[in-house]
Amino acid sequence: MGQLAQFRLLLWKNYLLQRRKVLVTCLEIGLPTFFALILIFVRQRVESVRMENATYWKEFAVNESFKDYNWMTEGPWQIYFTPNSTSAGLVMQLAAERLNRLCASHGCVSG
User: Fold this and answer.
1) Using CB atoms within 10 A of its CB, is residue 79 exposed (0-12), middle (13-18) or buried (19+)?
2) Gap between the Cα atoms of 69 and 105, Å rounded
3) How many CB atoms lie within 10 A of CB 104?
């Protein structure tokens, strides 16, 4: 049996299953459409606000020199992050080690 024939049989089987379960088919099509319409309605009702004074910060690598950042050279640093998970803690500990400075990282509970 060729691949095209198998594909046709699979399509026929799916068609029969969809025809036998009309309610399920209607829900599979209707519910996503309903929720999409709700999202469109909410989007139309909410008034968007354009922020004119957006703040853009200069990017820097974690391991680069901080001589241009005077505010970053004083005292031990405190790094706060969220979510307070094992993987986020490991990432922040790695960042603290790359900074070659005395750092303490503190996880914050979000929510």
Assistant:
1) middle
2) 20
3) 10
Helices (H), the chain: 3-20, 22-45, 86-98
Q: 33-91 pLDDT, tens per residue?
A: 999 999 999 999 988 888 788 788 777 666 555 555 555 556 667 777 788 888 888 88
Residues 6+ apart with CB under 8 A from 92: 79, 81, 105, 107
Tokens (6 digits) for 38: 């709700």
Cα end-to-end span (Å), the chain: 57
Say what the pTM is: 0.38
Q: Which residues pair with 80 in a beta bridge?
A: 106
For the chain, the domains span 3-45, 73-107
Strands (E), the chain: 77-81, 103-107
